[in-house]
């Protein structure tokens, strides 16, 4: 998760267990516009055998369906699903298993938005990327006619913008929301945790690390200058906050959220 950063540095804030695993969260984001329910990413899903659950130490306090139900929503109420990229920890909950143990879309009424280059890379993986792209998480979307491929940065809905960032993968997207004079951003895996706000903290998973660094420097400066609200997909403690600048370094002013939000 920290690339070339030496362990004595990153373990201060992210202590590993005896198998060198660190605690991470899996946080999709729900955007409600009044006419649309937009789900950004779907987490790791439930299609895992016991061996994989042990390898990744998958622990759940609630399923995605449970979290939606607490807000009075069913999967059928989701109108848009934005997949920031198609790695299994962001797209795994897009499909579930039917009674015949076959994958089927979990959000049958939603259009699912993916960068065209991300779809190309996920459906034609190389030896390095094959383990992160699991076809059962995304091919059923195309088969069901629910897939929408987008190119570059574009507006999804008024006030909801898909930003093509790249870096982590060629097709990584961020989601920026503007409403009532405020701006928020879902960083996905450009800044997966608050530890990754510092420019050199780049994941070893990133396919284009220099692009990650360039995008972080540009967007974090803008986030600080304009007071954006930041949402973090994987931080184990902080779902969101404001990134602050102190001289040549950055900090975080975390928000408090109700459990499950």
Descriptive notes:
Keywords: Hydrolase, Metal-binding, Zinc. Belongs to the metallo-beta-lactamase superfamily. It comes from candidate division WOR-3 bacterium. Residues 25-234 form the Metallo-beta-lactamase domain. With 261 residues, this protein is α/β, with parallel strands linked by helices. It has a single domain, classed as Ribonuclease Z/Hydroxyacylglutathione hydrolase-like (Metallo-beta-lactamase, Chain A, 4-Layer Sandwich). The protein is 20% helix and 24% strand. Strands 8-9-10-11-12-13-14 form a 7-stranded mixed sheet. A 5-stranded mixed sheet has the order 1-2-3-6-7. β1 (29-32) and β2 form a beta hairpin. The two termini are 25 Å apart.
The number of helical runs is 7
Classify the oligomer.
single chain
Mean pLDDT: 94
Main sheet: strands, sense, barrel: 7 strands, mixed
Q: Could you list the spans in which at least 5 consecutive residues all have pLDDT below 50?
A: none
Q: How are the strands ordered across the major sheet?
A: 8-9-10-11-12-13-14
Approximate shape: globular
Order of helices and strands: HEEHHEHEEEHHEEEEEHEEE
| Tally of domains | 1
Structural class: alpha/beta
Strand content of the residues, in percent? 15-25%
The N- to C-terminal Cα distance equals 25 Å
Cα-atom Rg, whole angstroms?
Answer: 18 Å
The CATH class assignment is Alpha Beta
* DSSP helix fraction: 10-25%
Counting DSSP E segments of at least 2 residues, the number of strands comes to 14
CATH architecture: 4-Layer Sandwich
InterPro entries: MBL_superfamily_lactonases, Metallo-B-lactamas, RibonucZ/Hydroxyglut_hydro
Domain Metallo-beta-lactamase: 25-234
Protein name: MBL fold metallo-hydrolase
Pfam families: Lactamase_B
